Amino acid sequence: MTAEPAVTAAPGPKQTDGLVGWLQSTDHKRIGILTLGTAFVMFLFDGLLGLAMRAQLARPGQHILSAQQYNQVFTMHGTGMIGLAITPFALGLGVYLIPLQVGAPRIAAPRLTLLGYWCYVLGAVTLVWAFLTPDGAAAGWWGYTPLSSSIYSPGPGMSLWVAGVFLAACGMILQGATVLWTILRLRAPGVTMLRMPVFAWTMVVTCLMTLASFPSLLTAMGVITATRIDPGLLASNAWNMAYENLFWFYGHPVVYVMFFPFVGCVAEVLAVFSGRRFFNYKGTAFSLLAFAALSMAVWGHHLFISGQQVNDYFSLTSILLTIPAGMEYFGLLGTLAGGRLRYPAAMLFALAFIPQFLIGGLSGIMLGTPSVDYAVNNSYFVVAHFHYTLFAGSVFGFFAGVYFWWPKATGFLLNERAGRLHFVLMVIGANVTYLPMFFLGLKGMPRWVVSYPGGAGFSALSLISSIGAGVIGLAMMVFLYNIYISARQKKPATADPWGGYSLEWLTSSPPPRFNYNAQFPVPRVRSFTPTLDLRERQRERQRVTLSPRAGRPVTDTVTADTRAYRDER
Amino acid sequence: MTAPVSARPRPGQDEAQPQRPAEPGRPPATLRPWTVVALWAAMLGLLVAMDAGFGNSTFVLEVSGSSAGFVFLLAGAVWLDRRLRPDRGYLRYPTRIGGVVLLAVAVTLAWLGFAFGAWLTMIAAVPFIAAVGLEVAAHRRGKLPDGPAGPRRGG
Predict the structure, then answer these.
(1) CATH superfamily of A25-247
(2) Of residues A289, A297, A514, nearest to B147 (C-beta)
(3) Is residue B145 classed as helix, strand or coil in its secondary structure?
């Protein structure tokens, strides 16, 4: 083929380094890294609050925290982990990766993405302020009315909480919208919907859910605002139930917003490190759509005991979720079957995700059954369930993604030995912390209690759980140490250190300003594994070339093939 | 062989998306982006109908139904954008982001007024007006392309 002059990048806005340069950049990679970095800081902060709660509950009758402080701590822990840490992890990954994965030079509406980041940061600051202020927000992460009204939660703390939640949600909506529009309208030629990586599909459903459910949270914050301005304004049980419906219409889908992207991370990691294409790709893509739709219709199971919902419907939809979830597990396990597995830290985290999330999912089916839910509602069984899904599931998926894409984003590799130590401590910590909570719940230990009597039979399991939380804290320190030593050593990463499958592995590490350029062009995309396709075609050419029947000088042909490979890219 | 990025159509040229020649009798399967969104909206609509069949409250149906309707509108927007602007060339956009930051600050102040008094909400008008001014100035001043030259085709 004839070589044509490559498209050259037009002189774009000059990128300045330093903190100011980063904070004002419209480069999706920088916004993505900023979002992920800020979310990680919030994750550590809210994790420390979790440790404080576990310290309080390690022994019966402790007084490390007062009752009011304990309420403030669990309110901030829940709000922060969901709204300021794991949701931004999910959408931040999308902001960083999606344009790269679909071959776009930028994200759609980069300034809106940046506005989203700023709204999120200001929301985070406001929420921390709400926590630190005297008589801070203490009405739980759900902020039920009338508890959150100005009668029962006086002072500015709860008002700041409302403002912070509103701003952070606005930020996530803006980022979700731009990621979705990038997928729908900015894909490179050849990248059809069914040629996108599994991660991009998970982001499609994540962003759809964000756009469909988060506005409900904004409306719910409006309801609290009204009750704080005039407590008599919406003072009826009908409005309390309306608030609960509005809140949980966001509150349950957000769990899946915090889940799907990490399934995408796990899917990418499992495929690459098992040396196989993702199994049942199309089935998984369609099951993701069904899964996301169903998960918009299960929120009522949080209100089973209210007696104000049609439990049959919400129980049915909750249990129907097992069908698409099963298809996704089928895809994950089918990818592993028969593969030649490699075990770097990313793969270990991805493998641990599978059984651990399964524990969370199976206990969720139990809770989707009203008769079981009546028995264990508001007990530690529920706490164990959602921590298995969000921490032992999603956070493990997140770390799989971090170890996998870190070299792409930074240009250097993380230390594998420290990564494995991090993994081991995380597995021990997560299971030692959350498994006893199932038994605590079955024994009848309620949630949201600052203390418990010594003779209640909760002491030993609570202590074990608290020790586990300490191990998780240690694991996080190992991860921070890993970043520190890896940044010092700066072991350079190639463009494709793992033998990846999707487009981002064809550009440099870290990628250039507009992701792809004359040196790293977007190739013709024929499947959802374009990089693997290129490698296979190159291997095939080499095989033909090295064959005695080729009848041509080997060196010349190899040169020609290399050129063809480069042209193809 | 294949079409490298350099062979992408220039303005005025045929902008047909390079496709592998279809096998005889088997047109290449395509899934349009708006179809994906509409399919998802239809699933939501089906679930709302099912919910109504179970006799859930009007409020619950309104919340979930409006969400499904919104997603239908989104599918329509994607379809319309594709129809009206089939060629997604790289848009020029202002490089100055001061207006964006100030807008976020204004929204924050407006909400903080709810915690500390309406006077703060009134103060929020200052950064809001400044944000609008900065945006107008930025749009008038310099817009730089954010991507390689030449049109692209997406969606």
Answers:
(1) Cytochrome c oxidase-like, subunit I domain (1.20.210.10)
(2) A514
(3) strand
